[in-house]
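Task card 7
Instruction: Convert sequence to structure tokens.
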Amino acid sequence: MGDGPSSALSRDGTFSQRTEGVLRELILDGTIPPGERLNEVALASALGISRGPLREAIQRLAGEGLLTIISHRGAFVRTFEEREIAELYDLRTAYEMYAARLVCERASDEDLEQLGEFVAATGDEMSGGRYPSGRDFHRRLLSLADSAALERAAAETQAQISLARSISASRPVRAKEALDEHADIVAALQSRSADDAARAVREHLDLARRSAMNALGFTGER
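Output:
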């Protein structure tokens, strides 16, 4: 159990936040698959906590759209219809296009140089055609927009998209294409053209949407 959920609860942060974070990770990495009912007794035992903090975490994750609570039946990991996924990508695109415009206004030249270095380093770490885990270009982009409210809303939307993508065991590999698109976004940001940067983000996320829909067996039509 040294690397398991209960071990994660010993890390920094408040106990309530740690419980929520571990449960979120179990959902997003597919340990608790979409459509499955949460067994509160088993989870509380595995995490070494009482059911009170666990229920608080469940309520918060339901508020984020990761869980569905059904009266008298319990909490279930959310599943998604095709239209819901399309709408989530619409939201994500709107958030990140706006973020790109803010970055053009607010980020320093050094910030954008570091973002370009981040993309280059990500390419160096790519192996077997897969994007390296833990290197989130979009999170960095949003942080440079310097808007906590925007960053928070975009993170919730992306978490739901990640959950929807976890339904498919065979995710399409387009890491090299995505990396090139990230580089195009950085170039547009460095030119300080808000229109070009927003357009590059939209084109990148349109391709990501199509890839996700194909992975999930959807047509992409609403």
